[in-house]
Amino acid sequence: MERDLAELMTNLCEEEYANPNSMHSFGVKQARRLEEARERVARCLSVDPREIFFTSCATETINWILRSSVFFRGKRKKIVTTSIEHKAVLNTLRDLKTISNIEYHAVSPESDGIVSVDKLLNEVDDETFLVSVMAANNVTGAIQPYEEIGKALREKDVLYHVDAVQTIGKIPFNLQKGLCDYASFSAHKFHGPKGVGIAFVKRGSPIKPFITGGGQERGMRAGTQNVPGALVTSIAMQRAIEDMETSSRRLRYLQKEIVESVKALGGAVNTPDDSISNTVNASFAGIRSEVLVNALSEEGVYLGTSSACSSRSDGGQYVLDEMGVDPSLASCSIRISMSRFTTEEDVAILIEKLKKTVPLLKF
Ligand code: PLP
């Protein structure tokens, strides 16, 4: 998080501690702050503020949307998704399959990590009530054809959720043209605080309250709202989007440098060419991910073996498996992530440490 935003957050916690649901003027000020945050997020996404809800993380948003859709399915039984979704989607669907009488079909990607539009649409039939697709994959950075899928679904009576967690500040994400019914976002992916998620719910699309209680978030998600978190998130989102063109051009250049260095060291690159510009997924045959990640960590370079949010369970290797990457390479994969604050110097250090560490671990 940027220093001024961290300071703003601290200040809001220290000085503006009133409950936004209180009737007194101190509370009303907090309610106004919350609405200011909602309006800023809505402007960033070109939607109506009434379509924006604050949650605690993208996993919560995803749970809400998927579980709610089951309530409105009528007699239909099927959800179509991809096999490379984040576990927030895949494990929720697995749970829904056991507790509700539904089934889901997860379409595998092609070898470049991108799902075929035709293959996915072929699965959408009269039984389908929801399609859930990620905009960009968190393990490889591969951008998915979520816009094309959205266009095709417009003619069908099917709800559409886009996991847009990896989009903000990385690729333009435009909800203006009615792309989807629902979208999910996470503040810490664009230098906002941890513990804030956002749900976009298109006006008119069916939605059921997720957390019942005091009626906050227009009755959809009860519980006292995290005003400092929401406000700082909205500013971080605006900054990430405003800076996107400049930062992604710069990151694209750094990404190419990393890719070339990985190849020069005999590594394989698992990220396709037109991916989001901050991610490089690579494998060095014979060096298991955790060994390389630990060795680089000793050198002050912190990489992921996959997606940071699930790497303590079974990581993101399933994504590479689904792409058909050889298991011996998949188990050696590392995820190099940059942010808009990553400098050329940071990348030079990374490359230097890779050059030092990889040959040592190979022998
Ligand atoms: N979806 C994607 C694509 C992600 O990358 C992540 C986390 O990295 C999530 C969902 C879950 O987000 P959160 O950690 O806010 O629950």
Structure description:
With 363 residues, the chain is of the alpha/beta class. A seven-stranded mixed sheet has the order 1-7-6-5-4-2-3, sandwiched between helices. Strands 8-9-10 form a three-stranded antiparallel sheet. Helix 6 links the parallel strand 4 and strand 5. Helix 1 runs antiparallel to helix 7 and helix 2 runs parallel beside helix 7. The chain is globular, with a radius of gyration of 21 Å. About 1% of the residues have low confidence. The site of pyridoxal-5'-phosphate has 14 residues, from helix 3.
User: Are any ligands bound, and if so which?
Assistant: pyridoxal-5'-phosphate
Number of helices: 12
Q: Roughly how much helix do the residues carry, as a percent range?
A: 40-55%
Shape: globular
> How much beta, percentage-wise?
5-15%
Order of helices and strands: HHEHEHEHEHEEEHHEEHHHEH
- Name the poorly predicted regions: 307-311
Note the main sheet.
7 strands, mixed
Strand segment count: 10
Kindly provide the radius of gyration, computed on alpha-carbon positions and rounded to a whole number of angstroms: 21 Å
Average pLDDT taken over every residue = 95
Strand line-up of the largest beta sheet: 1-7-6-5-4-2-3
Structural class of the helix and strand makeup?
Answer: alpha/beta
Euclidean distance between termini CA atoms:
40 Å
